[in-house]
Amino acid sequence: MGNKVHPNGVRLGYIKDWESKWFNLKEMPNFIEEDWRVRAYLKGKLELASVSRIGIERQGKLLRVNIHTARPGIVIGKGGQGVENLKKELEIMTSKKTVVSIVEIKKPEIDAQLAAESIAFQLRRQVAFRRAMKKTIERAMSAGAQGIKVMVSGRIGGADIARTEWLKEGRIPLQTFRADIDYGFAESRTTMGQIGVKVWIFKKELFKKTTKELAEEVKVVDASKG
User: DSSP states of 138-190 as a string?
Assistant: First the structure.
Protein backbone atom coordinates (compact mmCIF):
# COMPACT_ATOMS: atom_id res chain seq x y z
CA MET A 1 0.00 0.00 0.00
CA GLY A 2 1.25 3.47 -0.86
CA ASN A 3 1.48 6.30 1.63
CA LYS A 4 -0.45 9.34 0.43
CA VAL A 5 0.00 12.93 1.61
CA HIS A 6 -2.78 15.51 1.43
CA PRO A 7 -2.01 17.88 -1.52
CA ASN A 8 -3.08 20.95 0.46
CA GLY A 9 -1.55 19.93 3.80
CA VAL A 10 1.91 19.34 2.36
CA ARG A 11 1.89 22.86 0.83
CA LEU A 12 0.76 24.73 3.94
CA GLY A 13 3.03 27.68 4.66
CA TYR A 14 4.57 27.45 1.20
CA ILE A 15 1.90 28.23 -1.39
CA LYS A 16 -1.23 27.32 0.62
CA ASP A 17 -2.71 29.07 3.61
CA TRP A 18 -4.56 27.76 6.68
CA GLU A 19 -8.37 27.76 6.63
CA SER A 20 -8.46 28.53 10.37
CA LYS A 21 -6.31 31.47 11.45
CA TRP A 22 -5.93 31.74 15.22
CA PHE A 23 -3.61 30.58 18.00
CA ASN A 24 -4.69 29.86 21.56
CA LEU A 25 -3.18 26.84 23.32
CA LYS A 26 -5.53 27.10 26.29
CA GLU A 27 -8.74 27.16 24.23
CA MET A 28 -7.49 25.07 21.31
CA PRO A 29 -9.78 22.00 21.84
CA ASN A 30 -12.85 24.21 22.21
CA PHE A 31 -11.96 26.34 19.20
CA ILE A 32 -11.32 23.30 16.99
CA GLU A 33 -14.72 21.86 17.90
CA GLU A 34 -16.39 25.24 17.39
CA ASP A 35 -14.78 25.63 13.96
CA TRP A 36 -16.07 22.20 12.99
CA ARG A 37 -19.61 23.04 14.16
CA VAL A 38 -19.59 26.37 12.29
CA ARG A 39 -18.44 24.73 9.05
CA ALA A 40 -20.91 21.84 9.35
CA TYR A 41 -23.78 24.26 10.02
CA LEU A 42 -22.91 26.55 7.10
CA LYS A 43 -22.37 23.69 4.64
CA GLY A 44 -25.80 22.30 5.54
CA LYS A 45 -27.51 25.70 5.50
CA LEU A 46 -25.93 26.75 2.18
CA GLU A 47 -26.11 23.41 0.41
CA LEU A 48 -27.41 24.99 -2.82
CA ALA A 49 -25.00 27.94 -2.79
CA SER A 50 -21.94 26.04 -4.13
CA VAL A 51 -19.76 26.77 -1.09
CA SER A 52 -16.20 25.58 -1.69
CA ARG A 53 -14.53 26.40 1.64
CA ILE A 54 -15.10 28.39 4.81
CA GLY A 55 -12.26 30.37 6.35
CA ILE A 56 -12.38 31.25 10.06
CA GLU A 57 -10.34 33.99 11.74
CA ARG A 58 -10.34 34.88 15.44
CA GLN A 59 -9.17 38.20 16.87
CA GLY A 60 -9.90 38.38 20.58
CA LYS A 61 -13.68 38.12 20.97
CA LEU A 62 -14.29 38.77 17.26
CA LEU A 63 -15.07 35.89 14.91
CA ARG A 64 -14.66 36.46 11.19
CA VAL A 65 -16.13 33.91 8.76
CA ASN A 66 -15.15 34.05 5.08
CA ILE A 67 -17.49 32.06 2.84
CA HIS A 68 -16.04 31.19 -0.58
CA THR A 69 -18.96 30.54 -2.92
CA ALA A 70 -19.71 30.38 -6.64
CA ARG A 71 -23.25 31.75 -6.04
CA PRO A 72 -22.88 34.79 -3.78
CA GLY A 73 -26.40 35.98 -4.55
CA ILE A 74 -27.94 32.98 -2.78
CA VAL A 75 -25.83 33.57 0.34
CA ILE A 76 -26.35 37.35 0.44
CA GLY A 77 -30.11 37.10 -0.10
CA LYS A 78 -32.53 39.90 -0.90
CA GLY A 79 -31.15 43.19 0.40
CA GLY A 80 -28.41 41.39 2.33
CA GLN A 81 -30.95 39.66 4.58
CA GLY A 82 -29.28 36.26 4.12
CA VAL A 83 -25.95 37.47 5.49
CA GLU A 84 -27.63 39.18 8.44
CA ASN A 85 -29.51 35.99 9.35
CA LEU A 86 -26.30 33.95 9.16
CA LYS A 87 -24.52 36.49 11.34
CA LYS A 88 -27.23 36.36 14.04
CA GLU A 89 -27.35 32.55 14.04
CA LEU A 90 -23.55 32.26 14.31
CA GLU A 91 -23.47 34.77 17.17
CA ILE A 92 -26.04 32.67 19.04
CA MET A 93 -24.05 29.50 18.32
CA THR A 94 -20.63 30.85 19.32
CA SER A 95 -21.55 33.66 21.77
CA LYS A 96 -19.09 35.93 19.93
CA LYS A 97 -19.45 39.01 17.80
CA THR A 98 -19.36 37.69 14.23
CA VAL A 99 -18.50 39.23 10.87
CA VAL A 100 -19.54 37.30 7.75
CA SER A 101 -17.72 38.03 4.47
CA ILE A 102 -18.65 36.61 1.07
CA VAL A 103 -15.85 35.78 -1.39
CA GLU A 104 -16.94 35.00 -4.94
CA ILE A 105 -15.25 32.15 -6.81
CA LYS A 106 -14.57 33.48 -10.31
CA LYS A 107 -13.95 30.09 -11.97
CA PRO A 108 -15.99 27.35 -10.26
CA GLU A 109 -15.02 24.90 -13.03
CA ILE A 110 -11.45 24.68 -11.68
CA ASP A 111 -12.42 24.50 -8.00
CA ALA A 112 -11.75 20.91 -6.92
CA GLN A 113 -14.25 20.86 -4.05
CA LEU A 114 -17.10 22.15 -6.23
CA ALA A 115 -16.15 19.68 -8.97
CA ALA A 116 -16.24 16.76 -6.50
CA GLU A 117 -19.60 17.87 -5.09
CA SER A 118 -20.98 18.24 -8.62
CA ILE A 119 -20.03 14.63 -9.48
CA ALA A 120 -21.45 13.40 -6.15
CA PHE A 121 -24.75 15.20 -6.88
CA GLN A 122 -24.94 13.63 -10.34
CA LEU A 123 -24.29 10.17 -8.90
CA ARG A 124 -27.20 10.68 -6.47
CA ARG A 125 -29.39 11.41 -9.49
CA GLN A 126 -28.22 8.11 -11.05
CA VAL A 127 -26.17 9.70 -13.84
CA ALA A 128 -23.59 7.31 -15.34
CA PHE A 129 -20.33 7.81 -13.42
CA ARG A 130 -18.10 7.92 -16.52
CA ARG A 131 -20.31 10.56 -18.11
CA ALA A 132 -20.20 12.71 -14.98
CA MET A 133 -16.42 12.37 -14.72
CA LYS A 134 -15.81 13.19 -18.40
CA LYS A 135 -18.05 16.28 -18.26
CA THR A 136 -16.21 17.59 -15.21
CA ILE A 137 -12.82 17.02 -16.88
CA GLU A 138 -13.94 18.77 -20.08
CA ARG A 139 -15.24 21.82 -18.18
CA ALA A 140 -12.06 22.11 -16.11
CA MET A 141 -9.71 21.86 -19.09
CA SER A 142 -11.82 24.36 -21.06
CA ALA A 143 -11.61 26.79 -18.10
CA GLY A 144 -7.81 26.78 -18.21
CA ALA A 145 -6.73 23.93 -15.92
CA GLN A 146 -3.39 22.34 -16.83
CA GLY A 147 -4.43 18.94 -15.52
CA ILE A 148 -7.20 17.14 -13.66
CA LYS A 149 -7.64 13.73 -12.09
CA VAL A 150 -11.00 12.34 -10.91
CA MET A 151 -11.38 9.21 -8.78
CA VAL A 152 -14.64 7.50 -7.80
CA SER A 153 -14.75 4.63 -5.25
CA GLY A 154 -17.56 2.41 -4.00
CA ARG A 155 -20.33 0.25 -5.41
CA ILE A 156 -20.27 2.08 -8.72
CA GLY A 157 -23.29 1.46 -10.91
CA GLY A 158 -24.81 -0.80 -8.27
CA ALA A 159 -22.09 -3.46 -8.61
CA ASP A 160 -21.91 -6.17 -5.93
CA ILE A 161 -18.22 -5.51 -5.27
CA ALA A 162 -16.81 -2.05 -4.55
CA ARG A 163 -14.09 -0.82 -6.88
CA THR A 164 -12.19 2.33 -7.83
CA GLU A 165 -12.38 4.05 -11.20
CA TRP A 166 -10.41 7.11 -12.26
CA LEU A 167 -9.82 9.35 -15.26
CA LYS A 168 -7.01 11.80 -15.85
CA GLU A 169 -6.13 14.48 -18.37
CA GLY A 170 -3.08 16.75 -18.46
CA ARG A 171 -0.40 16.92 -15.73
CA ILE A 172 -0.82 16.41 -11.97
CA PRO A 173 2.67 17.01 -10.44
CA LEU A 174 1.83 16.08 -6.84
CA GLN A 175 5.47 16.09 -5.71
CA THR A 176 6.21 19.58 -7.05
CA PHE A 177 5.63 21.98 -4.17
CA ARG A 178 5.37 25.07 -6.37
CA ALA A 179 2.54 23.44 -8.34
CA ASP A 180 -0.82 24.92 -7.33
CA ILE A 181 -2.89 21.75 -6.99
CA ASP A 182 -6.42 22.02 -5.63
CA TYR A 183 -7.92 18.96 -3.94
CA GLY A 184 -11.56 18.21 -3.23
CA PHE A 185 -13.48 15.34 -1.65
CA ALA A 186 -17.20 14.61 -1.51
CA GLU A 187 -19.44 11.67 -0.70
CA SER A 188 -22.59 10.58 -2.49
CA ARG A 189 -25.20 8.59 -0.55
CA THR A 190 -26.96 6.41 -3.11
CA THR A 191 -29.50 3.60 -2.70
CA MET A 192 -26.71 1.07 -3.35
CA GLY A 193 -24.31 2.55 -0.77
CA GLN A 194 -21.93 5.43 -0.22
CA ILE A 195 -19.61 6.49 -3.04
CA GLY A 196 -16.53 8.66 -2.49
CA VAL A 197 -15.36 11.22 -5.04
CA LYS A 198 -11.86 12.75 -5.13
CA VAL A 199 -10.69 15.47 -7.51
CA TRP A 200 -7.20 16.91 -8.10
CA ILE A 201 -6.89 20.02 -10.32
CA PHE A 202 -3.53 21.43 -11.39
CA LYS A 203 -4.14 25.15 -11.92
CA LYS A 204 -0.69 26.60 -12.52
CA GLU A 205 2.94 26.43 -11.49
CA LEU A 206 3.95 29.29 -9.21
CA PHE A 207 7.37 30.98 -9.28
CA LYS A 208 7.76 29.92 -12.89
CA LYS A 209 8.78 32.73 -15.24
CA THR A 210 6.63 33.39 -18.29
CA THR A 211 7.97 33.95 -21.81
CA LYS A 212 7.40 37.70 -21.41
CA GLU A 213 9.39 37.82 -18.15
CA LEU A 214 12.28 35.87 -19.73
CA ALA A 215 12.30 38.27 -22.69
CA GLU A 216 12.50 41.26 -20.31
CA GLU A 217 15.48 39.66 -18.55
CA VAL A 218 17.26 39.18 -21.89
CA LYS A 219 16.71 42.87 -22.72
CA VAL A 220 18.21 43.91 -19.38
CA VAL A 221 21.27 41.70 -19.92
CA ASP A 222 21.77 43.02 -23.47
CA ALA A 223 21.45 46.62 -22.25
CA SER A 224 24.07 46.05 -19.54
CA LYS A 225 26.50 44.55 -22.07
CA GLY A 226 26.00 47.43 -24.44
Answer: HHHHHTT-SEEEEEEEESGGG-SS-EEEEEEEE---TT-TTEEEEEEEEEEEE
Which stretches in the chain have pLDDT values below 50? none
Residues with Cβ within 8 Å of residue 1, at least 6 apart in sequence: none
Q: In what order do the strands lie in the sheet with 97-104?
A: 20-21, 51-59, 62-69, 97-104
In angstroms, rounded to a whole number, what is the distance separating the alpha carbons of residues 92 and 34? 12
Q: How far is 143 from 66, CA to CA, in rounded Å? A: 25
CB-based contact 22:58 (threshold 8 Å) = yes
pLDDT confidence of residue 223: 64
- The radius of gyration of the chain from alpha carbons, rounded to an integer in Å, stands at 21
Distance from the Cα of residue 192 to its chain's centroid: 27
Looking at this protein, which amino acid is placed at residue 45?
A: K
For 126-179, the pLDDT digits (tens) are 999 999 999 999 999 999 999 999 999 999 988 889 999 999 999 999 988 889
The residue type found at 6 is H
Q: How far apart are CA 215 and CA 219, in angstroms?
A: 6
Mind giving me the DSSP string for 73-112? Answer: HHHH-GGGHHHHHHHHHHHHHHSSEEEEEEEE-S-GGG-H
Would you state the pLDDT for residue 4? 79
